[in-house]
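Re: that chain you flagged

S.,

Sorry for the slow reply, it's been a week of failed gels. I finally had a moment to sit down with the sequence you sent. For the record, here it is as I used it:
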Amino acid sequence: MSKQPDFTPACPIPISQYPQVLMAHGGGGTLMHQLIGKMFLTAFNNPLLATQHDSAVAEWAGKKLAFTTDSYVVRPIFFPGGDIGSMAVHGTVNDLAMSGARPLYLSSAFILEEGLPMEMLWRVVCSMRDAAQRCGVQIITGDTKVVDKGKGDGLFINTAGIGVIEHEQKIAPQNVRPGDGVLVSGDLGRHGMAIMAVREGLEFESQIESDSAPVHEVVLELIKTGVEIHCLRDLTRGGLASALNEIAVAAGVKIAIEEKAVPVREDIHAACEMLGLDPLLVACEGRLAAVVAVKDAERALQIMRGHSSGAAAAIIGQVTESSTPLVTLKSAIGANRILDMPSGEQLPRIC
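Prediction finished late last night. Pasting the structure tokens below so you have them in one place:
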């Protein structure tokens, strides 16, 4: 009887390099993108997934629908400006908005740890209910699981969302072109620093509150007024730096931004300096980056500034050329440097 050849399934991420999952694999940086690209995209590859957008767009019964899913593992559960419940609604609504969709329906799955106080759970559920009402969406299905005490850190939430696209614009990273303007819809870094201030017991002259909020209304107004939008990306894990690098990679372009144009509050600058963090890498939960046709950049800016969360909205740069993907930052003193996405995890468990 002939000997059968040895067979070992080949993992697309070398075991010698990543023998275990690291916290950095969920941080929005290089390791997370390697994990997604080499593991999940390799296994689940299909044209809809390959767009690598915040929500997938598919046609169904003559309608264009956007579909997204997300999970929330924030610690602490309650923080200045929000909590895990309202953030789960905002985050899912915002992911749908990045495809230009009007959010309609959400699902919600709760993973509860044995021993979680019912009063705390009720606060989160009520927060989700109120956030959904403010966003004009309904939570129409869900699931509940309970894990052993010490195995779940209180409460995790998974959501999925469906929205409808009611316009002809194709909003995706692949539509970015040289000459496009790059905007942000408000000041950056507040969510991550609000979480860290509570977690680390830091005190500042004024309390830093999360920017957690829905952004779909400003997106829908941009579309309604005819702004030519090429790409939208919400600035969550990895902050502005990760979002722009993701766009540059998907579009095959160079993006140049100016540091002095990027809106960051002084207290956020101070908090980041204290902790040795770069505010351009700190997560937001109510901000977006928009890449629009240059002819519409100023109009888009005025629309953003017309919303309560957009007073600090700014044009921060432009797409300069088709090239090897690259994001550059011109500092306040005029020096240029590469703005790369973080290699690891700056702030774990913030969303």
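What I noticed first: The chain is about 30% helix and 25% strand.

Talk soon,
D.
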